[in-house]
Specification:
The complex is a heterotrimer of chains A (678), B (280) and C (326). With 678 residues, chain A is of the alpha/beta class. Chain A folds into three domains: 63-131 and 331-521, Rossmann fold, CATH 3.40.50.740; 152-325, Dimethylsulfoxide Reductase, domain 2, CATH 3.40.228; 565-676, Barwin-like endoglucanases, CATH 2.40.40. In chain A, the strands form eight sheets. In chain A, strands 5-4-18-17-16-6-7 form a seven-stranded mixed sheet, with helices on both faces. A six-stranded mixed sheet of chain A has the order 24-26-25-30-23-27. In chain A, strand 25 and strand 26 form a beta hairpin. The longest helix of chain A is centred in the N-terminal third of the chain and has 19 residues, at 75-93. Chain B folds into two domains: 14-102, Beta Barrel (Elongation Factor Tu (Ef-tu), domain 3), CATH 2.40.30.10; 108-239, Nucleotide-binding domain of ferredoxin-NADP reductase (FNR) module (Rossmann fold), CATH 3.40.50.80. Chain B has helices at residues 82-88, 108-111, 125-137, 160-168, 216-228, 270-273, and strands spanning 4-5, 14-23, 28-35, 48-53, 57-62, 73-78, 95-102, 115-121, 145-151, 172-178, 190-191, 208-213, 236-239, 255-256, 259-260, 267-269. In chain B, strands 11-10-9-8-12-13-16 form a seven-stranded mixed sheet, sandwiched between helices. In chain B, strands 5-4-7-2-3-6 form a six-stranded antiparallel sheet, with helices on one face. Chain B has a two-stranded antiparallel ribbon with strand order 14-15. In chain B, strand 12 (208-213), helix 5 (216-228) and strand 13 (236-239) form a beta-alpha-beta unit. Chain C folds into two domains: 2-59 and 79-187, no CATH class; 192-234 and 256-325, no CATH class. Chain C has helices at 6-19, 90-104, 110-116, 159-167, 175-185, 191-204, 210-219, 225-229, 274-293, 303-307, 314-325; strands at 2-4, 21-27, 33-36, 42-43, 62-69, 72-76, 83-88, 120-126, 144-148, 153-157, 236-242, 247-253. Classes of the chains: A alpha/beta (678), B alpha/beta (280), C alpha+beta (326). Chains A and C meet through strand 1, strand 2, strand 3, helix 1 and helix 7 of A and strand 3 and strand 11 of C.
Chain lengths: 678, 280, 326
Amino acid sequence: MKRTLTVCPYCGTGCMFYLVSDNGRLVGVEPSSSHPVSRGGLCVKGWNAFAFVHHPERLTTPLIRKNGTLEPASWDEALDLVVARLTQIQRQHGADSVMFASSAKATNEENYLLMKLARAVFQTNNIDHCARLCHSSTVTGLAETFGSGAMTNTISCIDETDVIFVIGSNTTEQHPLIGSRIMNAVRSGTRLIVADNRRIRLARQADLHLRHTNGSDVPLLCGMMHVIIAEGLADTKFITTRTENYAALAESVADWTPERSAAETGLEAADIIAAARLYAGAERAMIFYSMGITQHSHGVDNVRCVASLAMLTGNIGRPGTGVNPLRGQNNVQGGCDMGALPDLYSGYQKVSDPENRQKFATAWRVPALPASPGLPLTRAMDAASEGKLFALFVMGENPLISDPDQHHARRALENLELLVVQDIFLTETAALAHVVLPAACYAEKEGTFTNTERRVQHLCKAVEPPGEAKTDGEIICAMAKKAGYDGMSYASQSEVMAEIASLTPSYGGISYDRLAPHGMPWPCPTPEHPGTPILHHEQFTRGRGHFSPVSHSLPREQTDADYPLVLTTGRTYFHWHTGTMTRRTHLLDREEPTSFLELHPDDAARLSIRHRDRLLVTSRRGSIQTEARVTTMVIPGVVFMPFHFAEGAANCLTNNVLDPESSIPEFKVCAVRLEKLP
Amino acid sequence: MRDTTPCNSLYIPFDCEITAITDLTPREKLFRLIRSDGTPLGHLPGQFVQLSLLGWGEAPLSIASSPTREGYFELGVRQAGQLTTALHRMKVGETVGVRGPFGRPFDLEALNGEDVLLISGGCGLAPLRSLIQYCEDRPQQFGRVTILHGAKSPADTLFKEELARWEASAEFACHLTVDSATGNDCFTGNVGLITSLIPPLTITPHRTTAVIIGPPVMYRAVIAELKGKGLGSDRIVVSLERQMRCGVGKCGHCTIEHLYCCQDGPVFRLDEIEQLRGAL
Amino acid sequence: MKQLTPHELEQFLSHLAVRYELRLPILLADGTRTIGSPDDGSVVLHGGAVPGKPTAAFFPQQDTIFTASQGTFSQTLPPVKPLCILGFTPADLHCLRFIDRFFGDGMRDDLYFRLRQGAVVAGITGYCGVRGALLPPAGGNCDFELFWSGENWLVRAYGATGAELVAELPNQATPKEEELFTQALATAPDSGAILLQTASQLLRTNRVPDSFWEEIGERCIACTGCNVTCPTCTCFGVLDWRSATKVERSRTWDSCQLDGFMREASGHNPLGSAALRSRRRIHHKLAADPLKWGEISCFRCGRCDATCPTGIGIMAVAQELVARFG
């Protein structure tokens, strides 16, 4: 019986637990009783995080497509083929004809290595990962306003705040241990405002529940800021000493009267006023947000408004305050930190800056690095379907299910000359690949994950990978070697971290020996530095906080006679994204075995739809079948679907329109119609 | 895992061979099984087995045939989940795993000499059939036997031929109804809920026992009708469906407060359970 | 009664390790305690109950029922060396006694007894609870107990196996130590026991309205931690893993707090709301089990209260329930 302290592979909360193994086989999970976030608890996914690891469908050998079918191959054969094809395609179509999709499920080290492989070995900045789909608007919006696109405060700050404002985050389901902290705070007297038109659990416990229409976050937040300024609730001292461009913001919200805001959001003016007073009246107030803010064609504008609201009231830089984007994936913070992004090296160092390029080129011992930013993942699909991108290397992602407009994604993937997928199971995307590389899962490797509060935590290996599967890091380094690059052989993952630290100021002081037992939050510039739980304490990362006024735009697709309902998508508590792991976990899959659509009883009555009826859901992009769930969770006119299920895939319907600045797709709003199936 | 060896366990199924498969409705099939080692299953009416398909798990299924029909046992199976879908794809001659029989059967002793009123709705007829067949084979043990059956529609009616035989039989009174029928069904029988069959009956409460098996929504309504006829809770018997995973009182999935449906039931006298939350 | 110095205890343990696979409370890297092998962490007997389910030793979170390959079933054999587990608190020993009865009653659960049969269980009691609090003597329910007097471990054996194991220990406890043990044994039942009895009574007389369970259900995030850590929770689910060459059937801890726990293929669910499921969780321990087994099946080990992220472990709920309806 062996116990290995490691990090949960599911959400960005970053709970730590012990994997219990017996003779090389996982048999259970025990929470870390002293972890600062999970404090001896776990959610249902955490308690079951061991259960998919030895599933018989794990990939155990490389696969190469021969005559249309994927057949087992040796590592040498597979990697030779991948490198040869990539090189050949680049020779024929240019360096930027290939793209690397990194993974927010992989470790910091592996994200760094793939980024290095793309840039140093294959000389392209075409590297991105699924942060593009979740918080790219945060990275863009908060970098502009604060200088750092990460959660400003700690999860423990929940215990010392007076007001919590949750907008566009179903926290108890998506970050259960954070949601629980919020629930506990509310029971001990913290006031809670929830802005979300689904009647989520936190909404049911809130002092104020604002069910604003989908995509009307800018009117809501501007209305609140209008009230705060008009009623003299703004923190003028903070504004003068810590920020810039306030006048422009004040002007931009001047005509966002509560009445106008109410008209745009579908709320009562009195509720907008009450929310503004409650938030601004608090000594310490925290904002939590997530995909409800970011996944819009104006996602960056939403983020700017959130940042402005916090700065306007001085709720930044102190315990119990802050702008707190809850990061979805266990290591999506780390994926971004490591520069698995088309325009940034690790630590958010711009590739467009020649000094940065020189620094990385020198360290990586290559003559030069590409200067122009690469493709965002979401634009890569367009490029592939237009025949401008020829090869895609996917590490641990399943874009066929997770990307918007599935038909478009499928066309794009099928159009590629080379699709390589490195994963732990044969995902829907892997099934389309020319080469499939079997990877080790979280329990089978060492590395670090960075959680939503920027806490870099140590992932430890509990069991061996199945068959011939290798860690993502080993595979990447082997590819580099095959490609003739000798700068990627490491004796251990801690060596990779040392290289990361040497090149990444915010990780400068991070090394494995400092991470026991529960990690430390970046920025941590030097080996003596204790880490930084709260950002922007005395000044913002960028110096002064910048107020960025926004103009109001509607979601790109509006309802009409043919598509009369708004579809908003999200996740459920029991599944993780495309279900690669959770749908292979007995208890989780039993709990939510199939695709469903939530609709309001009024809409159900109008359409003669009963609970559990089979439905055909159609948008301008496609049709899917699913099951009706009649519930007051949603408001009339809006339906909700989770995107986990390959059968009844919500992303068959979603709209592939992108925020112009961050390239995040508008997952949260599209127009659909429903038909009852016999 | 340590060294393994064949072993005798509560949880290891024995082999049964499928000897016949009959389509009952588009969604339901009747499987006739024999134990591969030739021994009888040894069940009583009202019991169930855990049917095991390797790779698909186990499901509790009521035995639809009476032990008086020797040499085989039958299971009526609706295609609902993965296991039953896999079972529906199987053919005669193939082997399935079985554990059991489990559970408390109908109290045949208590029914001795009684008028019995056998009421089923939908696929509740499958488990009740074990008792109906028993009554058919041992008529001397019972007083007057009355069968009431309600189905959703003519097409959803199980065991149509047997129902017709029971309707025609002098031994039984048998009344059938469907919730609804369309013109296409060419249906000439009763249309209405199962409860509509009860008021016309003449019941002698002190020597009648009613047995009810049907979908969850049916019980309360039928019980109310029977009580209206003067039947006490000690003269009403129900069989409850639960998702047993083990059949032997361990897994906990079938508990009704302090009772384990797989051991204390699935057959209960109404007075044993009517005060328990979540029983009906 | 025998007596051991801490050093002699170490010797006694190494002696036991010859015949038994030894498991006892160890301290892990981040300060979490668990029952494990002495090779995997430093042995720390003080500190009271470990946070994990102690009965997992015999009823693991996931356990193979059988492997079937080409028509042959195989099962895991009992361990060559039986387990010897130290570290059960008196409450844990009651839990173990309860589930021994549960798994042995009627159809005997061979998977449980594969590990349980022949295992030695030792309680740890005395002034070695959290911050030196007294864990009252077990007085039974184990093969022997180790009672920390503050200076020495007093060893009391129960039953033949226990007697045989401690027979060779040289030192008898002093009369003063015997007296300390006897005094501790006479400790009155704690307020927690009375609270649960009151709560049980309220539940059994139907004095708790559904609205209460709706409130509790609203606070339950369905993490399943209460069931997963509870030493008397025995519910399990069954799953099959199919590969090209074999099928492996396992059982895994299940939770009555999940909607899928009792949901039937038709969609009907006798426990179809969080309120009903929360009621079941508490009612089962405090009202149903007393009817079936003659005793409340919560022995106040405190694990569900410690792991519950939202503060609705059984003691917290019982307190609320008694305060409002008692």
